[in-house]
Amino acid sequence: MSLLKVIPLGGAGEIGKNCTVVEMGDDLIVIDCGLSFPHEEHFGVDIVVPNFDYLRDNKDRLKAVVITHAHEDHVGALSFFVSEFDCPIYCTPFTEAMVRAKLEERVKLLEVPLKRMTIGKKFDIGAFEIEPIRLTHSIPEMCAIAVHTSHGVVMFTGDFKFDFSPVDHQPSDIKRLTQLGEDGVLVLLSDSTNVDRPGWGPSESAVAEGYRREFSKAKGRIMVTMFSSNIHRMQQVFDVAKEVGRRVAVAGRRMDDTVRMCQRLGYLNIPENVYLPLEELNKRAAHEVIILVTGSQGEPMAALSQMSRKEYSRLQIVEGDTILYSARPIPGNEGMIWRTVNRLIRLGASVVTDAPTPIHVSGHGYQDELKMMVQLTKPFYLAPVHGEPRHQLLYLDMAKSMGHPEHRMFHLHNGSQLCFDDQKAWIDDKPVKWGEVLIDQHGNVPVTDAVLGQRAALAMDGVIVVSLAADLKAGALEGRPEAQIKGFSGPGETIEDALDALCDELAKLKPAELKSRDFLEGVIVDIVKRVVQRKCQQRPVVIPVVVAV
Ligand SMILES: [Zn+2]
Ligand SMILES: [Zn+2]
Fold first, then answer.
1. Are residues 348 and 391 in the same domain?
2. Rounded distance from Cα 170 to ligand 1 centre (Å)
3. C-alpha of residue 60 to centroid of ligand 2, in Å
């Protein structure tokens, strides 16, 4: 029998860009195709997507992508995937609607083979039988994916919590998880995001109580910011608004589109006379309105961020506004979020980022919920994913404390090949090719390490452009080189010293060398960099310009 392999191309040892291959014989499928967000050192990079080289090398075996849910870290790389691969992409109706809305921005939808799957209904892809199982999370239609193979069941939990009072009244399918456990699960690839939080997380529906408290305290307008995919939280804003006699307007294109789409498809149930078109906001008194706004992560172009800079023409912050942050900061976004919060406070708003009764709860299960998943599914092997290495190790410790044998646990990295034959499982010595592709959304090509290095150098020490006029045919220089600087903060005489040193060096060149543009440019960069670094320990980018006269 062929080997069964499970290979994360992203999402193992990180929270983001989830993308895992399951392959056997001639069949290869991918579970999720997500993005992650850039770090501080990724100058000008907007998103990070997985490197698809392994899929390119195995294109003929690639049969399908199966999506667990519509969060960006699970679907955000699809627009890059579909421009290159044409296999079907299976998702639930809600996920499909969200993915379509997102893809519309980039690709021709007719060419994207999105296929519906129904939660609880198995279907075949090549040698695999795929079973989507309902779990609770912070977005509708989150599915664990059980991949039935001739070696056993590979179970992806996706992102989950065990929420016993979900806002949409669609609880996790605990019965099916139990049956799978009784029949035997070969390996569980579990979410490990909140393994460091003991106990059991609060239900999403607890947020309504937080809203009740904060809404009743506010005298003026209320603005609530959250992820525009958090439909259950929006539902609670609409419901509590009705209770307290306020109407809800929506600011921000992405959020407005999502609200309309979800209402049309029945995922959002807006009580009668609660929705208020943004244009009618001024017809209502301040204490009668709530505004849902984009920008919970401090994104510069989002409505709330623009309001904080007084750049949003449709709505201005006024004294007495209360702004509720109903979302967790994604690590790395804290700086942008706090800068926005400070600007909002300066404009006279009260900003609530944390409240005694929570206005935000995590969509990921705490430690006892992760234990419950293990108890229910009773996997033979365990491999935590959707966590940084520290989360994965804590998860393995947790599993040990539950009596799970150590030799049946794996610490996966991106590129790890977890292999199964009919006797055992092991990680292959050789990882497959994996990596991250940095995307600057204003350009269509990935940002390379070289470009990133140049951007870092420009940001740190600026640029010096050195121009030199030369008669290249005769091999003669015309006058003294000149320098222009941008963003360079070293003393002015450093530049003069560098140009003096350059003149001395140029005077020593042979006629043949003076006829070569490349050679002259090399000398300019070499001398100017060396002098500047020696004089003031800075490393600006040096751009040589040889003007032929
Ligand atoms: Zn998620
Ligand atoms: Zn996730």
1. no
2. 16
3. 28
Cα dist from 41 to 12, 45, 149, 459, 478, whole Å: 21, 9, 42, 10, 41
Å from CA of 250 to ligand 1 middle: 23
* CA of 36, nearest ligand number: 2
CA of 216 to the centre of ligand 1 (A): 31
Of 78, 6, 24, nearest in space to 49 by CA? 78
**Nearest ligand to residue 18 Cα:** 2
* DSSP category for residue 287: G
Same domain, 213 and 343: yes
Residues making up the chain, counted from first to last: 549
**pLDDT tens for residues 196-240?**
999 999 999 999 999 999 999 999 999 999 999 999 999 999 999
In a domain, 446, yes or no: no
User: Is residue 404 annotated as part of the catalytic site, yes or no?
Assistant: no
**Does 173 participate in catalysis according to the annotation?**
no
> 69, 360, 364, 386: which is the annotated catalytic residue?
364
What is d(CA 411, CA 399) in angstroms, rounded to the nearest whole number? 12
Q: What is the pLDDT of residues 249-290, one digit of tens each?
A: 999 888 999 999 999 999 999 999 999 999 999 999 999 999
- This prediction's pTM: 0.86
What's the CATH code of the domain at 238?
Answer: 3.40.50.10710
The enclosing domain of 404 has a CATH number of 3.60.15.10
Query: In the chain, how many domains are there?
Result: 3
Among candidate residues 335, 395, 330, the one with its CA nearest the CA of residue 360: 330
